[in-house]
């Protein structure tokens, strides 16, 4: 029975219940027990069971004692002190009333009054529970809609009782009001006027001072449902205003709504309803103005509540013009201050709610119906007073970026004026105190410059060249020239933002040339006229270089000759001219190289016109010099220069020579002792290094800190020693470590030389021994330090080298996408594989490893070449052998790169076809490796090597296919390798363009398919014979035995191959009737796995043989020896013979495949267990025999029992009993016998 809290009011009714409790069904009592369970699922099960019981009893006898008891207990238990109990009983009661709408409401109310009657003698908490029970009882009537169908008198009385019960305790008011509002929404206007409004007007028609959230909520609900009731007369009478919500009553409303005693009240539905009623713009602004006044000194509850109110307003906002007004000074300032002072943004509920408010503000502002004027006003409120320029950093959001990202060009121009005003320090920072001058800090001005740089990269500004140019001129002036209000601290940061602004990509190279040209000429004119004065004056060398680059730029712009390299030289000269103000040493060198290269291009153009092809001795091609220059740009820690390389290199790809590519590959050469980089200025922090690899990242990511220095330089040359301490290094590096250790040990031994003879330790003195201990410890510490270094992070120089090589891979990929020369592409293969092997050994090279694999993928997919010059059979053979041969690679490394080897070997075959080169030697190489793959057990070749080439329309495949047929049916080849041969043949026959359209090799195909036909029939017949049992022996065919276990995977592949061939087979080569008969016989003798069965059925449909065949039962009912198993390593192992045990035969046709598998497994286990039991039994018998050797047979007839306490009876294992006295002699005798028996037992066990 339920263990409930019993109130005093229930005692009187319990006497009657105790009399009839024996008559109540126990099942019903169990249901009541479940209703008070803390677990929700238990309560649900109990409620459902009780409802079924009550409905049954109600339909039979609605006046039965059990039904009355159940109803009384349900209603009485609504007043339980446990929340879980109230939930269970209320849910069940409401469900019953809903399912039985004809329930007498008078009887129900009578039970409520009798069972839930508060008594003065009860405690306050008990009476509170009783009032809660009454409210829940009335709520059940409302929720089940029984009350809405009752008379007006009952409705009026019930509503009165509901409101009265809610007034008894403060925490009951909301519960009763919730049921009241639900009832209001159920009934029509006439019912409200008749049954509800008289009580509402009496109870809730009070002035503002006496109003509560609940009463205000009820009035708003009725006002929306029946505006004629809460009319002007009612409002003037009780509130003194024409309407409830007016400008005059706003102070009282704010005081009512904000005067919460508990934070939980923030979720009261009155706030949502009130915000929905605030449709007038003036009322929202007036309401929010009074809310903002509260935030002069807000409480914790105010913070929670205003977050909820803002969410509701922004979610239901119609007029977007009020958005700037919601960013009021007190509230925004308070929240920004709270964000700045809080360390746990992700845990503070108020700050999390404020982020949600900002997201709603973004959605409302970026909507299509929001005007540009409103968007700019919102941005000003966020950036200027009362907001903060650093609002994104303080709140952890991207509100400014998201708002500016949706602006049009006019909006971007207006926002840029705000940023420029902050940079110039002409806009007031704080409007709260107009009289006092407020200046922007250096950090804020730097941040505004970064924001302006982001705007320059906005997609909407790409078409407005003049505006972009104006911003670049502004940043150049503030970054590199003397400006009154820019100090030493600000100038370097503004200079950085200028070069950052140059980094933004443009859709066309000509657009970039146009903007940079106007910018350079602007700088040149102002420097000549001295209208701009550089902060750091140029040296004479830099001035000469500037004049030289200006002259070159003018010549390139005035060049009427159509030279394709002009855009490249023009762009690079423009950039290098601007780099003179940042890195003059590098820029001077680059300008000189560019000028000499361009002069060489002009000479080559003149010679080409005159027909002279003579080349100057020992002079590199201009493109080689340019590539070397681009590589030096890549080595710089400058995103701008890397972007310049990305813009320029695609335009010179058509001029690239093998020497130029070898320059790039030399950077990737890991065997070179001198690395391509040397650090001049060490990196200040790791972020600068890690940023190098992100060559394609957006320029916005470089604005993470205001004081980042990105002027560190890297130049071509030298050091890669840090890689020697990594875990997986090359063998040469391991040998170096061994040599160091050997040398250190040799020096430690000193006079004791390491000869071939052993060292006599006796000849070493004590002092010498101590010295040796210390020296050897120091020597072997090398190994220890090496092991410790493996767990350390990669050194910065090595990390910079990795990132540099990653960027260089970009050049190779760009070249491969621009119709490259085949000879140059072939030159890339082996260096890339060498680099790939190096990356596998070094765990720090994972990013480079991924890029090299990507580059090899692009390389193997190249189909269009500029030319095929210098490509011959010898070159292709050398590369092919170098790729396929294992060489010095370890097996693990070879397996890891095997997929790329397969792709590139197939690429070489395609190159041979495209270059019209003889492929006889290539075919021979593939044949040799194919033989090794099937014959050599330790072969490391991947099946992909042959699968990929068999997919090509290559004549050499006709030389490989006959070998595959031989290997597929060769008994000396391992079974899984034979399966590979069938897979290769399936791939070959799937190559329809080669097999079915190539008529030149019809003879080869005829011979091939005849061999396939005969071998297939022989193999299937052999398997059938292996399953025929005659006279307990296996019958084999006269042909060659299979010699290996035939796996079902092999049969599956064979059937799939036959189906592929049947589609376009040569009729002269195949006898499908014989094959069909053999397959039919085979199917009758074996049971197939799922995949094999599907393959068989598909082939059977094609060649017209029965699909479903019942297995042939074995004639011999004796024990069958299973010799012809067909085992499948990948699919489940299945046996095809009928199994017999203890005279009972079970047929495979009667058992499913899985059940048969389990049955066979159990039989094998039982057989093993039976053998073990026989061995144990035999051993036990031997032990018994040995034990009983020294004892005589016992005769019961001569036995005389003496009941003496000093006698003892000892039982033995063999079942014979022997009486022995408990004397010392008998015990000694037993010990000697026992010891002797143990030795004999061990001997007998060994014999067994």
From TrEMBL:
<feature type="compositionally biased region" description="Polar residues">
    <location>
        <begin position="1137"/>
        <end position="1154"/>
    </location>
</feature>
<feature type="compositionally biased region" description="Acidic residues">
    <location>
        <begin position="708"/>
        <end position="736"/>
    </location>
</feature>
<dbReference type="InterPro" id="IPR007015">
    <property type="entry name" value="DNA_pol_V/MYBBP1A"/>
</dbReference>
<dbReference type="GO" id="GO:0005730">
    <property type="term" value="C:nucleolus"/>
</dbReference>
<feature type="region of interest" description="Disordered">
    <location>
        <begin position="1137"/>
        <end position="1173"/>
    </location>
</feature>
<feature type="region of interest" description="Disordered">
    <location>
        <begin position="1209"/>
        <end position="1248"/>
    </location>
</feature>
<comment type="similarity">
    <text>Belongs to the MYBBP1A family.</text>
</comment>
<dbReference type="GO" id="GO:0043565">
    <property type="term" value="F:sequence-specific DNA binding"/>
</dbReference>
<feature type="region of interest" description="Disordered">
    <location>
        <begin position="676"/>
        <end position="737"/>
    </location>
</feature>
<dbReference type="InterPro" id="IPR016024">
    <property type="entry name" value="ARM-type_fold"/>
</dbReference>
<protein>
    <submittedName>
        <fullName>Myb-binding protein 1A</fullName>
    </submittedName>
</protein>
<feature type="compositionally biased region" description="Basic residues">
    <location>
        <begin position="1158"/>
        <end position="1167"/>
    </location>
</feature>
<feature type="compositionally biased region" description="Basic residues">
    <location>
        <begin position="1228"/>
        <end position="1248"/>
    </location>
</feature>
<feature type="compositionally biased region" description="Polar residues">
    <location>
        <begin position="1213"/>
        <end position="1222"/>
    </location>
</feature>
<keyword id="KW-0539">Nucleus</keyword>
<dbReference type="GO" id="GO:0003714">
    <property type="term" value="F:transcription corepressor activity"/>
</dbReference>
<dbReference type="Pfam" id="PF04931">
    <property type="entry name" value="DNA_pol_phi"/>
</dbReference>
<feature type="compositionally biased region" description="Acidic residues">
    <location>
        <begin position="684"/>
        <end position="701"/>
    </location>
</feature>
<dbReference type="GO" id="GO:0003723">
    <property type="term" value="F:RNA binding"/>
</dbReference>
């Amino acid at each position: 029975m339920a263990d409930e809290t019993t109130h005093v009011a229930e005692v009187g009714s319990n006497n009657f219940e105790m009399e009839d409790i024996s008559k109540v069904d126990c099942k019903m009592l169990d249901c009541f027990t479940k209703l008070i369970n803390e677990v929700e699922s238990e309560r649900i099960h109990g409620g459902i069971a009780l409802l079924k019981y009550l409905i049954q009893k109600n339909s039979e006898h609605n006046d039965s004692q059990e039904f009355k008891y159940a109803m009384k207990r349900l209603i009485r238990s609504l007043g339980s002190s446990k929340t879980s109990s109230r939930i269970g009983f209320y849910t069940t009661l409401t469900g019953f009333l809903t399912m039985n709408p004809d329930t007498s409401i008078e009887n129900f109310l009578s039970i409520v009054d009798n069972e839930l009657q508060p008594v003065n003698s009860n405690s306050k908490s008990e009476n509170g529970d009783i009032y809660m029970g009454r409210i829940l009882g009335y709520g059940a009537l409302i929720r089940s809609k029984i009350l809405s169908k009752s008379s007006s008198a009952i409705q009026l009385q019930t509503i009165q009782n509901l409101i009265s019960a809610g007034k008894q305790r403060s925490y009951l008011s909301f519960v009763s009001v919730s049921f009241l509002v639900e009832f209001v929404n159920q009934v029509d206007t006439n019912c409200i006027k008749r049954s509800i409004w008289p009580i509402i007007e009496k109870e809730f028609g009070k002035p503002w001072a006496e109003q509560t959230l609940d009463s205000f909520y009820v009035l708003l609900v009725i006002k929306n449902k029946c505006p004629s009731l809460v009319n002007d007369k009612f409002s003037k009478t009780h509130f003194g205003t024409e309407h409830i919500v007016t400008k005059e009553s706003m102070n009282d409303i704010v005081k009512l709504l904000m005067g919460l005693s508990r934070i939980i009240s923030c979720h009261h539905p009155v706030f949502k309803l009130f915000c929905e009623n605030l449709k007038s713009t003036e009322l929202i602004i007036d309401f929010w103005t009074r809310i903002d006044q509260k935030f002069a000194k807000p409480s914790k509850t105010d913070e929670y509540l205003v977050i909820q109110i803002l969410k509701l307003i922004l979610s239901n906002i119609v007029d977007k013009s009020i958005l700037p007004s919601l960013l009021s000074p007190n509230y925004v300032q308070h929240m920004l201050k709270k964000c700045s002072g809080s360390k746990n943004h992700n845990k503070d509920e108020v700050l999390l709610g404020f982020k949600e408010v900002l997201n709603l503000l973004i959605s409302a502002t970026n909507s299509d119906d929001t005007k540009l004027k409103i968007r700019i006003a919102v941005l000003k409120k966020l950036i200027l007073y009362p907001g903060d320029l650093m609002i994104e950093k303080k709140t952890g959001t991207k509100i400014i970026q998201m708002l500016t990202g949706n602006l049009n060009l006019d909006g971007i121009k207006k926002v840029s004026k705000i940023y420029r005003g902050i940079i110039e320090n002409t806009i007031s920072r704080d409007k709260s105190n107009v009289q006092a001058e407020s200046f922007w800090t250096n950090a804020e001005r730097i941040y505004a410059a970064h924001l302006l740089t982001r705007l320059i990269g906005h997609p909407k500004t790409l078409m407005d060249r003049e505006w972009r140019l104006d911003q670049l001129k502004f940043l150049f002036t503030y970054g590199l020239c003397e400006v009154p209000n820019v100090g030493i601290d600000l100038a370097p940061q503004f200079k950085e933002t200028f070069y950052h602004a140059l980094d933004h990509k443009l859709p066309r190279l000509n657009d970039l040339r146009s903007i940079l040209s106007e910018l350079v000429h602007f700088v040149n004119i102002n420097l000549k006229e001295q209208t701009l004065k550089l902060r750091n004056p140029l040296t004479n060398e830099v001035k000469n270089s500037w004049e030289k680059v200006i002259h070159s730029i003018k010549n390139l712009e005035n060049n009427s000759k159509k030279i394709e390299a002009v855009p490249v030289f023009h762009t690079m000269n423009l950039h290098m001219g601007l780099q003179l103000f940042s890195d003059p040493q590098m820029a001077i060198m680059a300008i000189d190289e560019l000028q000499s290269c361009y002069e060489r291009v002009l000479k080559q153009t003149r010679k080409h016109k005159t027909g002279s092809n003579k080349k100057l001795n020992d002079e590199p091609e201009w493109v080689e010099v340019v590539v070397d220059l681009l590589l030096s740009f890549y080595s710089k820690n400058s995103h701008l220069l890397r972007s310049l390389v990305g813009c320029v290199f695609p335009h010179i790809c058509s001029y690239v020579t093998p020497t130029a590519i070898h320059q790039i590959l030399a950077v990737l050469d890991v065997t070179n002792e001198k690395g391509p980089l040397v650090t001049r200025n060490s990196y200040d922090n790791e972020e600068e290094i890690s940023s190098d690899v992100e060559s394609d990242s957006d320029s916005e990511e470089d604005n993470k800190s205001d004081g980042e220095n990105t002027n560190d330089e890297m130049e071509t040359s030298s050091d890669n020693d840090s890689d020697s301490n990594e875990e997986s290094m090359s063998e040469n590096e391991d040998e170096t470590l061994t040599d160091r250790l050997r040398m250190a040990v040799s020096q430690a031994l000193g006079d004791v030389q390491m000869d071939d003879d052993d060292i006599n330790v006796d000849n070493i003195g004590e002092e010498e021994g101590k010295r040796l201990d210390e020296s050897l410890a120091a020597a072997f510490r090398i190994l220890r330090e090496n092991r410790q270094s493996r767990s350390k992070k990669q050194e910065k120089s090595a990390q910079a080298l990795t990132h540099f090589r990653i960027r260089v891979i970009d050049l190779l990929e760009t070249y491969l996408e621009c119709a490259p020369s085949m000879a140059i592409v072939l030159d890339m293969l082996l260096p890339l594989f060498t680099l790939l092997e190096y990356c596998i050994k070094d765990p720090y090279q994972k990013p480079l490893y991924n890029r090299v694999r990507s580059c090899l993928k692009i390389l193997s997919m190249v189909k269009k070449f500029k030319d095929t010059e210098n490509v011959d059979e010898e070159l292709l053979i050398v590369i092919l052998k170098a790729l396929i041969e294992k060489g010095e690679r370890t097996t693990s490394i070879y397996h890891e790169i095997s997929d790329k080897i397969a792709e590139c070997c197939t690429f070489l075959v395609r190159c041979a076809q495209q270059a019209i080169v003889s492929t006889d030697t290539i075919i021979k190489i593939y044949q040799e490796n194919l033989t090794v793959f099937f014959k050599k057990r330790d072969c490391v070749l991947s099946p992909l090597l042959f699968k990929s080439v068999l997919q090509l329309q290559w004549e050499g495949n006709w030389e490989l296919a006959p070998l595959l047929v031989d290997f597929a049916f060769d008994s000396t080849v391992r079974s899984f390798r034979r399966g590979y041969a069938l897979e290769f043949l399936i791939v070959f026959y799937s190559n329809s363009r080669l097999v079915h359209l190539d008529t030149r090799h019809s003879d080869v195909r005829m011979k091939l398919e005849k061999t396939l036909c005969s071998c297939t029939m022989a193999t299937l017949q052999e398997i059938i014979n292996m399953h025929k049992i005659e006279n307990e022996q296996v019958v084999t065919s006269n042909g060659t035995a299979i010699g290996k276990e035939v796996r079902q995977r092999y049969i599956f592949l064979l059937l799939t191959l036959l189906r592929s061939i049947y589609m376009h087979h040569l009729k002269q080569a195949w006898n499908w009737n014989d094959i069909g008969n053999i397959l039919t016989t085979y199917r009758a003798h074996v049971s197939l796995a799922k995949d094999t069965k599907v393959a068989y059925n598909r082939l059977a449909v094609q060649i017209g043989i029965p699909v479903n065949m019942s297995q042939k039962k074995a004639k011999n009912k004796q024990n069958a020896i299973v010799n012809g198993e067909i085992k499948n390593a990948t699919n489940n192992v299945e046996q095809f013979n009928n199994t017999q045990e203890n005279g009972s035969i079970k047929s495979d046709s009667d058992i499913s495949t899985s059940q048969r598998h389990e049955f066979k497994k159990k039989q094998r286990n039982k057989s093993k267990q039976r053998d073990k039991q026989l061995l144990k039994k035999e051993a036990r018998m031997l032990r018994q025999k040995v034990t009983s050797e020294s004892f005589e047979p016992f005769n019961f007839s001569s036995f005389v029992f003496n009941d003496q306490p000093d006698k003892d009876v000892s039982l033995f294992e063999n079942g014979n009993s022997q009486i022995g006295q408990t004397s010392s002699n008998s015990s000694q005798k037993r010990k000697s016998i026992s010891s002797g028996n143990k030795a004999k037992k061990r001997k007998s066990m060994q014999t067994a």
